[in-house]
Amino acid sequence: MTNNKDLSFQAFRGIAIVAVVAIHASNTGKLFINGEFFSLNYELSLVLRQFINYGVAAFIFISGFFAPTNYFSTVSDYFIFYKKRLTRLLIPYLFWCFLIILFFKSTYDWNLYKIFIYIITGRVQGPYYFVIVLTQLIILTPFMISSVNSRAKSILWLSLTPLSILVLYFLQLYFNYEINFPWNVISFSLWTTFYYFGILARTQQKIINFCKNQIGIVIFLYIASILFSITESLYLWRVLESESLAGSQVKISSILCSFCLILLFLGLRKIIDNWPKVLVVLGEFSFGIYLIHMLVLEGINTLISRIQIIYNLNLLCIFSATLITIFVCYIIIYITRKFIGIELSQKYLGF
Known about the structure:
It is a single chain. By secondary structure, the chain is an all-alpha fold. It has one domain (2-349). Helices cover 73% and strands 1% of the residues. The chain is built from 17 helices and two strands. The protein has a two-stranded antiparallel ribbon with strand order 1-2. A hairpin with a 2-residue loop joins strand 1 and strand 2 (36-37). Helix 1 (7-26) runs antiparallel to helix 3 (55-65), helix 1 (7-26) crosses helix 13 and helix 4 (75-104) packs antiparallel against helix 6. Residues 29-39 have low confidence and may be disordered.
């Protein structure tokens, strides 16, 4: 329960899950009116994306922050760690994968090979790639922990994300080789910087102290990174005609913006004593919301599409879909916890 955890991180999880749902709601916003592409709607949703692209990076940072700080010296240490972290992640993931395949995916035709490939690549449901990324990072955690006292190794881990993104840019913009979802986000190297920085923030107090003492600089950097992200996204879309990169969470400016937001959070958590309860509760339910929100969002979008005044206003459509989806997910998780208990809900459903 939340009383055994740092409430600031639960609130940050709550902020992150709102961003994740909003991202997927923005993908379903109205871009066409009377069959014609409406560029203003797309530009508005693209600008909005720059404010919410931090969701996955934030979750990965938090996972790194709560990675064990003890060194792994025996086979038993590895086994206990992997069993605890991977079962907590993969049991609910597999449950929802099989449920979705059983009731919502007729295209599989019970092809076991296809089902297996989709599960191990996170393609059963679009957002599920996050589980595959986090699984890779958990496997690498013992090697990261052993690197925290080495400057050279730390630089190597921290540099993996920017180097991987440069490779993506080079392939897409120079060779015009489009890397489609989820392959453009599924590699651990694209997210390692956030996970490893979480480990460093937990083990090195000077990082926290810097964020707290230089909060003004951190705020300035975050605002500057947002402006940079908006500028880059519009340039990528209008000039370079790369729609996939323009809205991506793994473009240069989005990574920088997410990193600055994390720094801002680390500073604010030492200043703010009382975090909004609604964010703390959403943080507690965040994994469950993540697992089921796309199923709920599909139904919500169908309803909203029938309310023309909302559907024609893209930002209002995104806001409404996000808010209603989160509320419905919360109710589902709350009732499930009451019905079968918190322990079973968390272990098997991720609730």
